[in-house]
Amino acid sequence: MEPWRTTIARADATHLSIRGYDIAYLMRDTTFADLVFLLHRARLPTADERRLLDAILVAVADHGAGAPSCAAARLVASGNRESVSAAIAAGVLAIGNEHGGAGSACIEMIAAGVERARRQGLSIADAARQAVEAEAAAGRRVPGLGHRVHTEDPRVEVLFGMAQAAGLPGDGVAFVRGLQEGLRARGKALPINVDGALAAVLYELGFPPAAAKFVFIIGRVAGLTAEVAEEYERERPMRIRIPVEYDGVPPRRID
Amino acid sequence: MEPWRTTIARADATHLSIRGYDIAYLMRDTTFADLVFLLHRARLPTADERRLLDAILVAVADHGAGAPSCAAARLVASGNRESVSAAIAAGVLAIGNEHGGAGSACIEMIAAGVERARRQGLSIADAARQAVEAEAAAGRRVPGLGHRVHTEDPRVEVLFGMAQAAGLPGDGVAFVRGLQEGLRARGKALPINVDGALAAVLYELGFPPAAAKFVFIIGRVAGLTAEVAEEYERERPMRIRIPVEYDGVPPRRID
Amino acid sequence: MEPWRTTIARADATHLSIRGYDIAYLMRDTTFADLVFLLHRARLPTADERRLLDAILVAVADHGAGAPSCAAARLVASGNRESVSAAIAAGVLAIGNEHGGAGSACIEMIAAGVERARRQGLSIADAARQAVEAEAAAGRRVPGLGHRVHTEDPRVEVLFGMAQAAGLPGDGVAFVRGLQEGLRARGKALPINVDGALAAVLYELGFPPAAAKFVFIIGRVAGLTAEVAEEYERERPMRIRIPVEYDGVPPRRID
Amino acid sequence: MEPWRTTIARADATHLSIRGYDIAYLMRDTTFADLVFLLHRARLPTADERRLLDAILVAVADHGAGAPSCAAARLVASGNRESVSAAIAAGVLAIGNEHGGAGSACIEMIAAGVERARRQGLSIADAARQAVEAEAAAGRRVPGLGHRVHTEDPRVEVLFGMAQAAGLPGDGVAFVRGLQEGLRARGKALPINVDGALAAVLYELGFPPAAAKFVFIIGRVAGLTAEVAEEYERERPMRIRIPVEYDGVPPRRID
Fold first, then answer.
1. Is the pLDDT at A204 greater than 90, yes or no?
2. Do A97 and C89 touch (CB under 8 A)?
3. What is the largest CA-CA distance in chain B?
4. Which residues of D touch B1 (CB under 8 A)?
5. Is the dihedral of CA B184, B190, B195, B197 positive or negative?
6. pLDDT digits over D41-58, tens only?
7. Nearest chain C Cα distance for residue B10, angstroms
8. Chains touching A by CB (3 or more pairs below 8 Å)
9. CA angle at residue D62 from D45 to D211, to 5 degrees?
10. What is the pLDDT of residues B36-86, one digit of tens each?
11. CA-CA-CA-CA torsion for C81, C82, C84, C90, nearest 10 degrees?
């Protein structure tokens, strides 16, 4: 088999380096958020970049035992006590376009919209409104808005405030606010959610769309480990009983 | 269904808190390592505690594309391009007692050994030697020692140095060094590996055994996201070909 | 890399064989239960063996949307609509010693008990009673008995009847009935469950302990695919809301 | 929480039924292939339908230890010996559009093509050729053709022959042959693969597109259990070493 090629990590008998930096220096002089940035951007972040990435990782780490990822991890922990990896992996699997993954589609929409605004001399707000119309015409939901629990997502303004304080350009945030405005103009008042907020900020930080899912997963896994730990410590196996109602065909016999 | 009880996160229409702290404060004033500590210890860490946890998370984040967790994530990314969650979950699943999980068994051994030393008035080194003898008698491998790639694991002394500089008591580190000494006395010269090192330090920081696996998984997931990103960007689907040699029964016919 | 060795499947440019049998013959002349038997026992089953294995696979395929494996698959399907593999994998992950996996421990107990009966000239029933006492003394639950839903598991007597009709020796079944009797003698009236029933029959068919989990997983995956299909067709994304009650520390501030 | 609704399984204290059939009857009088059909089509199959579904499940069960699904399961089994569920789930996760999942896209293409042929009075072969042109124009690969190992996939003609003998209409098979012909006309000689073959037959049996992935997964899980069993029995933990070559940035220092 040909060797697999990689630009990420290099290990030999006595050394390990990540993106060219010796692990000893990374351990001594950087934080985990620095390393996440380094892994995905191939350079270390500035202090502002690190602070924003930390805020995003903190923001998404947990949202209660009933979030689909947390609930899936707990259900698996309820039936399978021999592998914490199994429970955490199940939590990761629940993260998709509908849960935790909308940030990727949102960065794509921001990138396309900001580019269109520049090319066509539109305001960011107008480009966002056009994007809302296009999604509505295609029968798709606008990513980054709406929440099952929050009427106002408490993480959004905090993150936008930090981004502004850090001097980010603001076009990603403006675009997502424009999406919200565009929906409101169509009679739908929805809060910006954390997916929309992190998409705006990751876009302004120069991350590609895929990064939104990756960053969400990294942050959420921390919460999943705590949910699994609590399930193991506090609950007995098989304690979860989902009420089910059968409404299929009545009893029948094999002919 | 009865509500699930939790002490971790609380969410309502306009608020989210983790272990009692409002998410806004956490996002503004803490780092991701702080949050990991908070999730598992129900309090925020000191600066030294945070620094050591950051060093551990950085240490385990990646170890090259061929580590079982990274390779499993890449194999899944090779066949399944529609879900990054699937690839990352597969990487998490490869983490077990043999890979990334030895730290949990090692903390258990340290805790039992240090306790035995105290109770019986033994030195830590003697307690460790006894533990090595007990494992040998039971035909078990001593956790936290040996590595497939490293003759000397470059992460170990860095972490031990940082722990000492932070003023940790040192009994966990002494015990793991004692395990190495005990094996050497039996003719086996093995390096302390990162599982052994993080076990020693997490033990001294007051973490329970399960935390070693949790912390390893949190750190490694960061690396897994980068491995999957590189696989998607750089390689075509289904590029991985494992050479296989069949050595089973010869061709036969159904009677 | 050295080639991986295998005795299972062999593939070249124009052929594929499993355990030495050409796939064309297997497709034309055997059933899926035959193949499952062949994969795990390296020979094709007799008609009776096939019939019993079919009955077991059918027995475990589904047990309602609220079984932990089914519920985990649905939760993941609820958040992640882009990968059916992710949802089914989550369902598999919920299968462990507490759910679907007790059959493996039960075969081990049967094998040890029947062997002890032979060696010591005990009746199977007495050996089973001793096993119950030993588990009770060790504070462990006896595997293969008890059910969250069934006061009498409707699959058990059907399978035992089929095993008897097929002329199986009956010592596995006798041992599991002995476990039930032993528990009853201690004041615990529990039904034999499907794990206990399939353990008894797989033991008599000559399967090793691990096979109980494998067979359960193969059968249950069929049900998981149907649960996921129904979730996708009938429900909207993110429809599952688990009620959660926070009972942790009250609101506090970062010092 | 509102009860979850389901039409699949119903369980109470003493009964279990699937799609209205009592589990006792199903265990006694049906096979696993019958049950798979019942789960997905809500009725029991005819003898011919059962035989074809058995042939498909047998065809896809295993393709050697190096297939991505099998290799992923083995890699996870190599690092995680405490959970067979984890290894099998990893194998399932490797199944996606690129591996084992092309059948779903292929059924969609067949259904659309056969419908177009009817509506426009085209021959099936012409409709298939148009589909090939459309895929080529869109820069997409035609699903169901080509194989990494086989120059001729030995499962295809067996399945097509069985379908013809069973008196299936033949339009799905004709369409897939037309795809092959259309590619050949463009200078690409590719074998029909098992995904294309099972798509043709499942389409003619009336299954929806999603069924191709579900059926592949059910069949392959049988093979995965055998691969994991062999890995556990025959190999030591952590035996798999993937050769890796680092070609990233050279060593550098933190500024």
1. yes
2. no
3. 74
4. 1
5. positive
6. 999 999 999 999 999 999
7. 6
8. B, C, D
9. 40
10. 999 999 999 999 999 999 999 999 999 999 999 999 999 999 988 999 999
11. -70
